[in-house]
Specification:
By secondary structure, this protein is an alpha/beta fold. It has one domain: Glucose-6-phosphate isomerase like protein, domain 1 (Rossmann fold, 3-Layer(aba) Sandwich), CATH 3.40.50.10490. Helix content is 43%, strand content 12%. It is built from 9 helices and 7 strands. Strand 1, helix 3 and strand 2 form a beta-alpha-beta unit. Helix 1 runs parallel beside helix 8 and helix 2 crosses helix 8.
Amino acid sequence: MLAKEWLNNTRDIMTRIEETQIDNIRKAAEVMADAIEGKHWVHTFGCGHATLPIEEMYPRIGGFVGFHPIIEIPLTFFTHITGEMGIHQFLFLERVEGYGVEIMKAYNFNKNDVMWLFSHTGINNVNIDIALEARKKGMKVVVFGSASEAKGKQTRHSCGKTIFDLADIVVDTCAPLQDASVTLKNHTDKIGPVSTMAFITCVWMTITTVAEILADRGVELYIHPSHNVPGDTTSRKRLDAALDEYKRRVAGV
């Protein structure tokens, strides 16, 4: 049964993450906690499906202020598929060297911020641009992706390095490079990709660790509450407090 095959593949990846990446996740969480405690940002960036972990972490019920999503609309996943902002354009744009430099010009950064990047293969130019610019600004660079599977792949960037080469900390998502994991009878290409589940697993393992570190330090977190719990009369007040804190940080207050 292919449904169970996909489920087993996903479970296997989660197990490998647990067995091999806990220490790296802790290292990433510590530098993120330092930034957030200091009223700085953990900026997050990815392209295509690698924007999904960014959208998952903030704003999100159970997420908290400190993570700043940088999502470039032409590089997100596609609603039209063909036509405007289609897949053909996306595949071209993520390989354009220099595009990431222009994206970085649109935001303010501090050397005590952290840049958290998501890339399955680590070879495309926009992500590498972002990593290079973040390093120039003095930020720590944390990269999540299929690092061991991508080892030896040729970068598309003129710097000669992959995004994993440029990272201060790498968390390996343990997903297969091909991403799709289930063989289908009478077809060349597999189905059932697993990289998104791997990304999301690593994200929440990291963010819960960040929260644990900050709570142990006595730092108050501005957490997004559920808006749908009967009898919770203060959820909107807590949400407003979180959004007010986000606005203060965006304004640099």
